[in-house]
Structure prediction request, 405 residues.
Amino acid sequence: MYEINEDRLASIEFHLNWEKNDVRHTDAVYAQRVNFWRDLLPQPLHRELMGSVAGDTVTQTYKSGDLVPLPDQKQTHDVPHGSVEGRLADGTTLVPNYGRFYPRGILRGVPGVYRGNTEPFRCVDTDPAGIRADFNHPLAGLDLRFDAHIMDVREKFDEHGGTAYDWVEQALAGPGMQSRYNGAATRFFDGPALERDDPDDDRRFYDQARMVPHIDERAIATISDLYGRLISPGARVLDLMSSWTSHLPNDLETASVTGLGMNAAELAANARLHAHDVHDLNKVPRLPYPDASFDAVICTVSVEYLIRPFEVFADVARVLAPGGVFVVTFSDRWFPPKVIRVWKELHPFERMGMVLELFRQAEQFQSLATFSSQGWPRPINDKYADRMLFSDPVFGVWGHRRTLA
Prediction:
């Protein structure tokens, strides 16, 4: 078994762990080819990794300011509305909402900002005169913990130079955007946020059975592993917005799995289901089940199609037994005609923040948490393997039904 040294390569999954506003977050980045002679890692982490072998985990904690600069008031800018020049995909003028992130390139007259700059800023205030743009990193001021899970260690061939990767910088790109600013609710749902390009009856769109995977095998495995960690054996499970497969781990023993979806043929083909119901949540957001019927509810790559999500999340809480878990997972692929408008406008990490707001608005969930995973290589047998280097990213948000007082 090889040990890590500067003459070897390793595959490592870096987990960034942090907490804010009583929500626990874990953001994972898979690094397939860490070169310890060339790549950039904080010295304490680099030092601790030396001598590690596959299966080991190295943990480093960092106080606020160690990896991310502390919040700096000089990094906030008051910008008049006339100096915000962004447009949405439909051509309408972009008006930043409180708590949301936008590319800096839409701002005019701010020092160091140029057109086309995609680095995000956060809108942290609005008034009739303009907005306040916060350029601080969204993790500024937080304590962080890095877990480095060593997947494999191998010999490397001759060193010929090349690109040096800053793996911590990559792991820090995105996390933090799912959290609230100063604890106040982010304004995701203003105006036409829940409208869709195709507002016609969903039954017409979903009348055709689609017996195909909507994400790649690696992403499916990540979701299955997450469900396996969060759902207890013997649970009564509701697969919300289900289809021909439920993505539950094969070795998870359940008391029952009930599927609720839009296509009868897909549901009938799902071998994991004990029972199923065809039901349109966008027409009738009340679930056809008694109170406390389930110990776990899952919703896989579908939450972005709900046009009445507040009602649905509230009713999920009703059918969950106290302490039961509701897990929502998604990626960055969807059916464009049916996805809600705001989903397309959000940064991928912001989408977790939007789902967190739905959990909070229901007022019946506790122990909220998020998880993200990206950077895994796309399976070689995937139909997009010749066009897409990385596997579909996975994002998850969950909470537990409040227990009775």
Remarks:
- The mean pLDDT is 94.
- The longest strand covers residues 8-20.
